[in-house]
User: Fold these one by one.
Assistant:
Number 1:
Amino acid sequence: MSRHNIIYFAREGAYNMFSHGFMSFAAVGITVACLIIMGTFTLVAVNANAMLEDMEAQNQMLAFVDDKSWTEEQARALESQLRAVPNVADVEFISNAEAAAAFRARYEGDELFTGLPDDNFRHRYAIYLKDIGLMRQTKTDLEGIPGIGEGNVAAYEDEAAGFITIRNVAGVVCVVLIAVLFLVSVFIIANTIKLTTFDRREEIAIMKMVGATNGFIRWPFVYEGFLLGLFSAVIGFFLQWGLYEAVARSIASNDTINLISTVPFSSMWGYVAVIFAGAGMLIGVGGSLSAIRRFLQA
Amino acid sequence: MIRLTDVVKEYPNGTHALNGLSLEIQDGEFVFMVGPSGSGKSTVIKLLIGEIEPSEGRVMVNGFSLLNIREWQIPYMRRTVGVIFQDFRLIEHKSVYDNMVFAMRAVGAGPKEIRKRIPYCLNLVGLENKGRRLPSELSGGEQQRVAIARALLNNPSTIIADEPTGNLDPARSLEIMRLLERINALGTTVLVVTHEKDLVNRFDKRVVMLERGRVVSDGRGWYGRRTQ
């Protein structure tokens, strides 16, 4: 493709977009609406995922020091070995005195536990994991460390499995919904652009009559779809930003739901921009190609 | 050169538009094709510009065999043929000059070639001063001359005119025919499909008459030599 053809296609695409203002407005409006619906869904999914990750991070294992007679120094010496186990994100040492104090505080007022000596408790470590899906393997690794030993690691595997199931189901639901919305968007845009193409069937017939190749006829429409998609992405991005900030502010100021924390838009605007630009252009170009195909036959 | 050999065309609805039509037009010839409605004239044009395929027989247009032409070759075949229609088919929102640019761009012509060729063609049809006008600002005859200039832009070896004077008064019709005659004199093959007997009879040219999808007469003048 020569340089003057590229310039010509780009100019024709832009000219067509502005000369068919109403149809372009309709196409951009529909694309923006579809992008915002998809974007909102994705952002809700991102926030739900972030909340699940927080909850997962709080899901800890306890590794007890096997020998009650070990001094605090001896028990603390295990920390480096525990940190070296794969999938361990963090460890926190809890001495037997701290564990006993916490126990007594929980059962304060219960005579049965009053006066329980500290040496009834063992030194222990709270272990935080990177991926709770690997909990069973990590437990086995921790039990293999001399000083901890088999049967001395308490893991809440059922709870972890619950989190994993929720995350997997939410992930699949999100992907399916976004894919469906994307296909619906392409279909709507294809039909909108089909109307603009129908409006220009005479021009297409003339181009074919004088011997234009299908590729040559197609390119201005591809550029037009590209530009429509890009415009839609830019407008959609800023509207999405405004909408997200407004919802985040209203959640933060609401007394009943302010415990829900939202991911700040500033930490993900780059991803959102790239996804909007990519989806917008893909929808625009895909819609154009699908619309023009019928006119290029014969 | 155009050559149709034993061409049969049957449309999907069962209509037999052509029934074993054979015709040969040599390079540089001027030919009128006449016949009543439904005789197959439009089908011949559609075949010659690759819009439809023959059901049987062979069609050759300027070296391209339309029997086994590939889809990607059709645009290149069309560049050898300039087509003119009764309704001019100009883009209303573009000026005369831009209509011409549009047609040249469509075949990938560069700016330099465009600047050179368009004034030449407009001059040939006597519209060198009307380049900035919109088609709606021109008379029917002038619009048809723009269509002829556009058909000539890519220097085709053949011009096919489908009822080019159908929308014009007799004086303008004669003007258009004289213009086509002049273009023919420059070496371009011209095939004019018409049903205007008086106009055809003013020119001493070859006349091919179709009836029910066959050539029934081929010779000089309106009532030419009967072949079948």
Number 2:
Amino acid sequence: MSDTARETVPDDVTPAEPATPGSPVADPAADRLLARRRWPQRLRLARVHSIWRQPAVVVAVGILAVWVVLALLAPVLTADPIAQSPDLYRPPSAAHWFGTDELGRDVFARVVHGARLSLPLAVVIVGCSLAIGGLVGLLAGYLGRAADEILMRLTDLVFAFPQIILAMAVAAVFGPSTRNAVLALVVVSWPIYARVIRSAVLSIRSSDFLASSRLLGVGPWQALRRDVVPNSVGPAVVLATLELGNAVLMLAALSFLGLGPRPPAPEWGAMIAAGSRDLSIWWVSVFPGLAILTVVLAFNIVGDALRDRLDPRYARGLR
Amino acid sequence: MLLGFLLRRAVVTVVLLVGVTLVSFLLIQAVPGDTMTATLSEQALQDPEVVAAYRARWGLDEPLHVQYLVYMRNLLQGDLGVSQQTGRPVLDDLLTYVPATLEIALPAMLLSLVLGLAIGLYAAVRHDRFGDHAVRAGTLVGLSTPPFWLALVVLYVFFYLLGLSPSGGRLSTWIVPPEKVTGSVVVDAALEGRWDVVWDAVQHTALPVLVLTVLTVAMLVRFVRSAMLEVLDADYVRAARAKGLPTSRVLTAHVLRAGLVPVITVSGLAFAGLLSGTVLVEQIFSWPGVGQYAFRSASALDLPAVLGVSLFVAIVYTAVNLLVDLAYGLIDPRIRLS
């Protein structure tokens, strides 16, 4: 399979002036030079701020903010999401905004409480995948040769499975639970980060400013810390944002398959599965679906906008 | 050189396939507790003879690497284990369900490619104007929608509210299914000349195909659009325009042709999306395909079936990727060199 990872070409990088051969690092001129290598980052931050000019981004961030507030205040705002009542399958009404489900539970309470599951879990999934994939990508790109070959073949193995299929297998093997669903999703998502970060590292490694910093006597570890890692942040941020949405979506899919958080946890995917048994009780599944849709869409809009700003290749193509 | 390219791709694919079986094997090993209790049904566990035969069959008393070889040997003989739910070999189960999945997956794939190209090209040509923005927004919504939820909503609207479509399944219950020749109900009915049955079967495929297509098109359009934008910007396209070729000719002869090449690479990815889609969608439409089998196996924690399905899908997907790579290499000679 061809490498689908985005190659990041930092076009805004101002190559450092050619270093004077033999100049020691302690030289103030060299220090200035090294400091200049941080330019790209500052430029990039300016780029990030400009996404606020897009109305869609403002709306998307607003939606996410509302969800976060809802998640935080859920116990105050809504009824108990697992309290059963004899009012089964009541359609939406003033008492139950989103109706009640097969156990007489308030669907509104469950949808709002669902955010308390999906949002933090998505963050955990993305965080773990980013940590593992980022490390692997850094090592593969920076060490090169055998390490690169072995690590990349490892990612190929994961890519040989459609994501949800492998996640399903892993979650089924370890048994259905919240922890195992997260584990399964980390197992299937880390390779994407590894590839993207690796290609970012590769493009930095072959850049002129890294060569010049090496000439200035900067050691490989210092270069890794000062140049390679900071310059991989852009692609990683874009990917992580897009993957937050994907994580919410995949977690719901696993739950839909019965491999997510156990009942009676108010998980969105599981709620849709429960509502799918009977079409006449549309409210049981429609509202959790809308919850997923709004959250994922918001992440995708922000991720897209970030990509346009941070990934020059896409800035040209996808704006 | 072409032969070398083919050979190299073939070797890479075989290595990948071996790796895939290794992943599948390690997953079985990773089952917490005893593998046997997890993979054999309750009933079979009661019978010491069955247990002994099972241990011998999978070499459970051997060291791990021998177990893997035994596993590979069984696999090459088509043994994916026995489903706990159906009590039948997983491969037999899969083969009965594949035709149903193909009946919705193939039309969805074709439709997605055609629509993906058309809409993607349209968006690229209308770059940064209303049509383009509308398409982009549409694809974002499509990508953000849970497939199983979309299936439910579509079914609710077209079946429950409007009564325009059947509730699910491959045929209406009162119809005697045609004799199985190709496995596709539509084709088999046509072979028998029963056109009313063909119509009924097509109506049953409509909604699943619609849902799968929407999801795949959303992904394809984004890719086609950016590929086409890149081509539209190329010097030779500008040259073609400058020499006064009509726009339609520039688009079909220059842009679409060059833009097709990168699109071929995503068709593999689109196929993966389709496979995942069937797992999440078939259950809603009571569609008796691989996806429903996967859904039921996962819900029932039928491990041999789940692992069998995932291995099967991975093998199919790897094969499709090989085909995509080969097609890519045949069309674009530059690829063969790398």
